[in-house]
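YM 10:42: Disulfide bond formation protein DsbD sequence, as discussed on the call
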Amino acid sequence: MKYKLLILSLFLFVLSPVLAQKLAPAKWSWTLEPAKPSVGQEAEIVFQVKIEKGWYLYSSDFDKELGPVVTTVTIKNPVGFELVGGLKAINPHSKFDKEIWNGTYTYFTEKGEFRQKIKINAENWKIEGIYDSQACSNESGLCVPVKGPFVIASSAAASDVMTDEAKKKILEPSFEANASPVAPSESLWQFFWIAMGAGLLALLTPCVYPLIPMTVSFFTKQKGGKGLAFLYGSFIVLIYVFFGTLLAFFAGASFANFLSTHWIPNLLFFVIFIFFGISFLGAFEIVLPSGMVNSVDAKSDKGGIIGVFFMAFTLVLVSFSCTGPLAGSILIAASQGAFVKPIIGMLGFSLAFAIPFTLFAIFPGFMQKLPKSGNWMNEVKVVLGFLEIALAFKFLSVADQVYHWHLLDREIFLAIWIAIFGALTLYLFGKISLPHDGPAGKLSIPRTLFATTILAFVVYLIPGMFGAPLKGLSGWLPPLSSQDFKGNSGEVSIKPGSTGAVKYGDFLELPLGLTGFFDYQEAKAYAIQVGKPLFIDFTGHGCVNCRKMEEYVWSDPKVLKRLQEEYVIVALYCDDKTELPADQWYVSKIDGQEKNTLGDQNLDFQISRFNSNAQPHYVLLDPRKEGAPMVAPVAFDANVDHFVEFLDKGVRQYKMN
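YM 10:58: structure's back
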């Protein structure tokens, strides 16, 4: 048995470097173009990043307040040159993430390139600085921000050829890490079906539905039969897709970040949606100039292919007062995504809109089976009006969060939605009416069921006013941290034996009303004092999986009870950029770099002590000992039972020590 244990120990010792959790998914290199610029000449520092398969690297050209770590290059003490402009990312991809970041970020896969222009002012020059970036895995959800130093000098030895030491730093950079499940792939199919749904709703509105008999009448007089009818539907699709293509061309991926996060377009979209909504409620109609509509309609009388085209154009124009807000909503949503998204959106919308008209043109007998026009069409329009107004506040919320106005915090947003959907419930139950409604009658079964569904949604929203997480709407609501009623002021409670608020508690906070620490030594001392094990949460502000663990796992009563009663919690933010006092700076033994921020020092502690550089990373320690964790640390795992077992094992091990 002794020999077996010895062999096993040696095996684990040899294998331990392989089992290490430090990751290096992106490697940076740099050159100067031209390599030997003359005095007065402009040159470019070219940064090339080789990215492992299955990973992507966040770019430099999106809002740094969004969440992920934006790539930055910091030049130290320019010698013999000056910067010209800022860092430029070369052709990154773009993605709008609604669920977590609620905005658009840019990224690279396989390889990335950044360029920085400079102007040479002297014969002897030296370019020295630090790159800071973040690479994420589509498969594991881990993110590893990669940082390191670079030097390019005018001497022949360092101009074009990197030294062995520099090469080593590329292969073994310093790391920060956040977990992120967000993969840079657009849900275009999902958006296509949403757009089709909007097109079907448009058919039920009072300025579209009555046009069906006009279509049938037109085609019964035309020669060409089914061929012209198919052509009619194709023209409808082409007209809408044309506008989607225009938007894609003028406001493609490079413009999407501005549309997603800047306050000007978001306030503009807010006003537009309110305008659309009030129009649908019956205050006024959005109409095109009658002269334009009549001119196009007159050309439809020519017959043949030209007549069919203008008939399709007439349909689009005449129905604009109802389809305009819906199509406009689709285009606004599409403008904040991939280049092809406006085209996909208009294709889905127009197909749902065109196919029924085409079928009725081919088979006019179907028209006899349609329900008659009536008050129900205005009711559909009113419902759409309420929905447009509710969606308008989502755009206002985006601007409010990005610019920290605090005008539309979570409880204010919820109060507005409760009021809007409450009013919609009363309308559907016939308790209130609007100007264009017909005589009140008995409620139909579909309307009653729909009204009950909206009422259930209102009931679901109400607990959110008092801190309920409302997980089903996490991508739509302002963050829970903006809510006043959640019972957590953002500052950790004073502990027995302490003299005041905990260190860094003035700007850091724990979720779910939990109390704890943000400094390891302070937490360790308190844990020894109260006789409890230490729960270390290596986390980050931009860590998506950290937020998901808190929202879906920590919030479970079984987990929350154990964290509150059985552990002392310390949250160590590994991406916090708060610069510490100079007397607390030190040079890391891991990478030889100076650690001068709170995040850098927390990450260095994670790497040096636990050989890990990714978050979330949860460690259970006995504060009375400086040894290894009591049980194997865990990372992202959304299984509540697994996390409960992890915490229980730690408590049992602590009691055995």
